[in-house]
């Protein structure tokens, strides 16, 4: 008999969501994976990655939810014709520059929207937890990756759900180096992830998401994965 708590994963197919799943897959019964299409340039790559990951971790129910209205009200570079900003590896810890980059790729209330949709699924199907890949490194500029955000939305879910649904973020206190180390420790199929803001056969290696991933892979000596993802 399965006595593990039930969970739903917000699965973009990127590093953070995949490692969050890997960290908890033995402790939680993952019944659903949700992937969102809000018109982002990298959607097809993200979706293909999420399919592979859901299959790898044996999640039977994987749904893609289209959010055309979110695309229509979003003006930032992830969905518009604007060029996604490049960030140099040496500038990743420059908070002033990364804050400017964040504003160019910010999608209004994205994680709030995703979690509330997921909460409707969890409330309906009696799923205990929603898992999100929020992490310490991105929380420096993206407020919806912060512990404060997780606490606040959990307070709201007390009133907005009947099943006492909660959000958990297992990587909340980890930076990208620690996340990649954990991924290697858990034999995560990193060759199958897609963390790039752009859409191409390989990761572009220039956007902030790519640079953070590449720096962490370099620091952990995962050069074979760099070759598979970037070259």
Radius of gyration: 17 Å
The number of domains is 1
CATH class: Alpha Beta
Stretches where pLDDT falls below 50 for ≥5 residues? Answer: none
Q: What portion of the residues fall into strands of 2 or more residues?
A: 5-15%
Mean pLDDT, nearest integer?
A: 95
Largest sheet: 5 strands, parallel
Q: Which strand order does the major sheet show?
A: 3-2-1-4-5
Work out the number of β strands: 5
Question: What is the structural class?
Answer: alpha/beta
Task: Categorize the overall geometry.
Answer: globular
User: What is the helix tally?
Assistant: 10
Corresponding CATH architecture: 3-Layer(aba) Sandwich
Q: Level of helix content?
A: 40-55%
Alpha-carbon distance between the two ends: 46 Å
What does it look like?
This protein has 231 residues and is α/β, with parallel strands linked by helices. It has a single domain, classed as HUPs (Rossmann fold, 3-Layer(aba) Sandwich). Helices cover 45% and strands 11% of the residues. It is built from 10 helices and 5 strands, in the order E-H-E-H-E-H-H-H-E-H-H-E-H-H-H. It has helices at residues 15-24, 43-56, 68-73, 95-105, 110-125, 136-139, 147-160, 176-185, 208-219, 223-230; strands at residues 6-10, 29-37, 61-66, 129-131, 166-168. A 5-stranded parallel beta sheet has the order 3-2-1-4-5, with helices on both faces. Helix 1 (15-24) links the parallel strand 1 and strand 2 (29-37). Helix 1 (15-24) packs across helix 8 (176-185) and helix 8 crosses helix 9 (208-219). It is globular and about 45 Å long. The N and C termini lie far apart (46 Å). 42% of the residues are buried. The model has no long low-confidence stretch (mean pLDDT 95).
């Amino acid at each position: 008999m399965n006595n593990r708590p039930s969970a739903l994963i917000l699965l973009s197919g990127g590093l953070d969501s995949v490692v969050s799943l890997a960290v908890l897959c033995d402790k939680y019964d993952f019944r659903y994976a949700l992937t969102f299409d809000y018109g982002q340039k990298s959607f097809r790559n993200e979706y293909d990655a999420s399919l592979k990951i859901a299959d790898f971790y044996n999640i039977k129910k994987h749904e893609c939810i289209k959010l055309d209205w979110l695309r229509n009200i979003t003006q930032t570079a992830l969905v518009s014709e604007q060029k996604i900003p490049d960030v140099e590896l040496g500038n990743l810890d420059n908070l002033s520059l990364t804050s400017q980059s964040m504003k160019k790729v910010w999608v209004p209330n994205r994680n709030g929207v995703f979690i509330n949709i997921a909460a409707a699924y969890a409330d309906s199907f009696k799923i205990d937890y929603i898992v999100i890949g929020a992490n310490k490194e991105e929380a420096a500029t993206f407020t919806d990756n912060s512990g404060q955000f997780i606490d606040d939305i959990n307070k709201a879910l007390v009133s907005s759900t009947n099943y006492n649904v909660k959000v958990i973020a297992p990587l909340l206190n980890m930076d990208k180096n620690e996340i990649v180390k954990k991924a290697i420790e858990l034999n995560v199929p990193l060759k199958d992830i897609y963390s790039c803001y752009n859409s191409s056969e390989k990761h572009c290696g220039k956007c902030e998401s790519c640079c953070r991933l590449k720096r962490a892979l370099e620091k952990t000596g995962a050069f074979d994965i760099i070759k598979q993802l970037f070259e």
